[in-house]
Amino acid sequence: MAEDLFLVFSNPAAGREDEFNEWYDHHHLGDVLAVPGVTGARRYELAPTKPPEAEGMPEPSAPAHSYLAVYELDRDADEVLAEFLRRVGSGEMPLSDSLDLATISMSAWRARGPRRQAGA
């Protein structure tokens, strides 16, 4: 049984952040959770941080995305992604035009070794 994560980095269309979040939280997450193989989902928004200056270290560039969705999978990520795309294409999983498709980034991640905890 796979324990992969599928990460989706996204941005709202310009000036449509409230509409984007309403659609994502109240429509899209439910559509995604209905896909076989998706066992959990959680959204994140970029937290503003200011890294301390360190001599000789370049300043990190700003992230390209404002939002991240993390989907937990219990089957092959390629199979789940194929079903996502099939549902989008058939209209079963409608996408909002408040989602900036030009900047979206998706990737699957597999654990490399066991989870470790501080103090263990």
Automatic annotation (TrEMBL):
<dbReference type="InterPro" id="IPR011008">
    <property type="entry name" value="Dimeric_a/b-barrel"/>
</dbReference>
<protein>
    <recommendedName>
        <fullName>EthD family reductase</fullName>
    </recommendedName>
</protein>
